[in-house]
C-alpha cells in the first residue's frame, strides 16, 4: 500500500454487477463488505462502492480535452506503458465497451500520453492512462494546451 493511499467512495445501483466489474474484470482484490457496500484494493488505494437507488446516481458533465468530451467526474490510475497495454487486452477480452476509445493524447508534444475511458455498470467513469515520458505527470512548463 502506498504511504499516501487515497480513499474514494462511489455510488452504484447493483453490488453484484460492481463486484463482477471491479473484482473480476479489473482484478481488484476485495476487502471488507456489507450488504450495502464493498471495499476494493484499486491499485493500492481504497475504493468503496456504495449501493444507492438508481435515481440517486449522479448526472455526468463533460469538458473538452484535446478534441474529446471528457467526463468531468472520473477517476483512474496512471500505469506504465506495458501495464496499460495489458489492461487494454484484458478489457477487450472481457468485452468492456469504451466511453472514450484508447487514443494518444497530445501526440508528439510534451506530455504525450495514451488514455482510455470506460464506465462501470453504474455509469461511473474510469480513466486509465500512461505517459510516454513519466516525468511529465506533474510537469508545469512548456505546455500549450487549451
UniProtKB/TrEMBL annotation:
Organism from which the protein derives: Congregibacter variabilis
InterPro entries per the UniProt record, alphabetical: Glyas_Bleomycin-R_OHBP_Dase, Glyas_Fos-R_dOase_dom, VOC_core
UniProt xrefs under Gene3D superfamilies: 2,3-Dihydroxybiphenyl 1,2-Dioxygenase, domain 1 (3.10.180.10)
A Pfam family annotated for this UniProt entry: Glyoxalase
UniProt superkingdom: Bacteria
Protein name: VOC family protein
Domain VOC: 4-131
